[in-house]
């Protein structure tokens, strides 16, 4: 178990994503519907649905919207979404994994391939970069739930594998990222909830084995690529093995 004070993950500049609230809601709704369709429509009986509902609540999605997305699955009038993963290289050779939920594979593949091609990257074949990542469970809390020692102790007690904490500053609120095995994700999340309260996020994630520092020029193009991918309605998450130094992020604004 290790504690790290600095954690700058793939999901950069959360503030910029606030502007995309309606697009974010539609992605959250899609995940809720798919999760409800694949298992029970009750979040207490369906770990994936519970995680999706918690993620929606963390983004202040109205209860009515959440219930509508669940009902959509049980009514059978929802589109047939399938999960698709794309792997490729961004500018500077950084490895990127894109996860999507789509009702049209051809449309999504074309959009993702174009995003890579226009922003200094290229799409690879399945398995091209995922060997450099671990598939893990990720539980996220805001830094405000407690200091590193408190969260580390709670995580050890709950059976987590690793914790990365960024206590933040005036501009960055900070967060705790708690890593667990895929199989124990919801069990550990339930234990943590007893001591730290409800998590901001409980999900499956891709954690890079090694991170690559990128310079200002590479970072600028890379962030454009991530933004374009994020803006695609079919794309749910974007993961990468890059680290952008604080001074570079400050220059990029």
TrEMBL record:
Where do the TACO1/YebC-like second and third domain residues begin and end?
Answer: 81-241
Q: Which UniProt keywords apply?
A: Cytoplasm, DNA-binding, Transcription, Transcription regulation
Residue ranges the record marks as coiled coil: none
Q: Name one GO molecular function term.
A: DNA binding
What is the predominant subcellular site recorded for this chain?
cytoplasm
Q: Specify the TACO1/YebC-like N-terminal domain's residue ranges.
A: 5-75
Mind telling me which InterPro entries this protein's record contains?
Integrase-like_N, TACO1_YebC-like_2nd/3rd_dom, TACO1_YebC_N, Transcrip_reg_TACO1-like, Transcrip_reg_TACO1-like_dom3, YebC-like
Q: Where is the composition biased (Basic residues)?
A: 1-14
Q: Where is this region: Disordered?
A: 1-26
List the subcellular locations.
Cytoplasm
**Pfam assignment, any one:** TACO1_YebC_N
Q: What does the similarity note say? A: Belongs to the TACO1 family.
Q: Which HAMAP family match?
A: Transcrip_reg_TACO1
- Fetch the PANTHER family from UniProt: TRANSCRIPTIONAL REGULATORY PROTEIN YEBC-RELATED, TRANSLATIONAL ACTIVATOR OF CYTOCHROME C OXIDASE 1
- What is this protein identified as? Probable transcriptional regulatory protein MTR66_09480
Q: Which lineage is the organism of this entry classified under, starting from the top rank?
A: Bacteria, Pseudomonadati, Pseudomonadota, Alphaproteobacteria, Sphingomonadales
């Amino acid at each position: 178990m290790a504690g790290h004070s600095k954690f700058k993950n793939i999901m950069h500049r959360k503030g910029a994503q606030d502007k995309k609230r309606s697009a974010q809601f539609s992605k959250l709704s899609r995940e809720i519907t798919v999760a409800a369709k694949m298992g029970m429509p009750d979040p207490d009986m369906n770990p994936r649905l519970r995680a999706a509902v918690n993620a929606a609540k963390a983004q202040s999605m109205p209860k009515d919207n959440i219930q509508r997305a669940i009902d959509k699955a049980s009514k059978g009038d929802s589109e047939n979404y399938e999960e698709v993963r794309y792997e490729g290289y961004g500018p500077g050779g950084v490895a990127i994994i894109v996860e999507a939920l789509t009702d049209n594979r051809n449309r999504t593949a074309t959009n993702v391939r174009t995003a890579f091609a226009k922003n200094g990257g290229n799409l690879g074949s399945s398995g091209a970069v995922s060997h450099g990542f671990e598939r893990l469970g990720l539980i996220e809390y805001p830094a405000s739930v407690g200091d590193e020692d408190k969260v580390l102790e709670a995580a050890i007690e709950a059976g987590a594998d690793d914790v990365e904490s960024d206590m933040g500053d005036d501009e960055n609120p900070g967060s705790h990222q708690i890593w667990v095995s895929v199989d124990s994700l919801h069990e550990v999340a339930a234990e943590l909830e007893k001591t730290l309260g409800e998590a901001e996020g409980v999900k499956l994630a891709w954690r890079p084995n090694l991170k690559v520092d990128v310079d200002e020029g590479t970072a600028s193009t890379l962030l454009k690529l991530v933004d374009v991918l994020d803006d695609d309605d079919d794309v749910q998450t974007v993961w990468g093995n890059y680290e952008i130094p604080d001074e570079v992020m400050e220059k990029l604004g």
